């Protein structure tokens, strides 16, 4: 059963990749959307079958799907085609936020996922958790900045911090160090420090990139 579950998740991941590839071109966007929907359906059904949620939990899942799906359908129908880049960036930020929330849920309720008990989570799960929350926070912040810039709500004026490259390198090193410490200790404080530093790291990196483009150092 474990092998079947892994294969289904793998198939779901492949479909997500095909969906991104399809969405990169207008002629294949419909096919890309279909791949994405099928992949998500497989992932959801596999998770439900694997976890066997209670009646109340199943009700919450259905309610979440209804709210999310209904909201997405409404926005997709009402948004102008010229605003599609902003919409994609905004929705993509929710993917990053979801990754952070899922990692936090696993940290505080590991028994529900079968990865240990609070304070005694399996090491491999701590690795996945720490990397997932870092990538999720980076995705969230980067997508929010992309949305604000595409929508004209954020100025492109760079922040010229003294020694900004050294600051970025130090932040990246600090995140790696915190990940190592979190995997070794499972301390929730380190988990949230990883999250905060990842958020800050993206903001400074984006601003540094803009500054480099403005100065002509990047083509």
Describe this structure in words.
The structure is a single chain. The protein has 2 domains: 1-78; 82-219, no CATH class. It has a two-stranded antiparallel sheet with strand order 1-2. The chain is mainly α and 219 residues long. The protein is built from 7 helices and 2 strands; from the N terminus they run ααααββααα.
Query: Strands of the biggest beta sheet: in what spatial order?
Result: 1-2
Report the β-strand fraction as a percent range: under 5%
Q: Largest beta sheet, briefly? A: 2 strands, antiparallel
Whole-number radius of gyration?
A: 20 Å
Number of strands: 2
Order of helices and strands: HHHHEEHHH
- Quaternary structure classification: single chain
Percent range of helical residues: over 70%
Helix count? 7
**Domain unit count:** 2
Which structural class do you get from the secondary structure elements? mainly alpha
Which blocks of ≥5 consecutive residues have pLDDT under 50? 209-216
**Distance between the ends:** 51 Å
Indicate the mean pLDDT. 81
Shape: globular
Give the tags.
219 residues; two-stranded antiparallel sheet; 7 helices; 2 strands
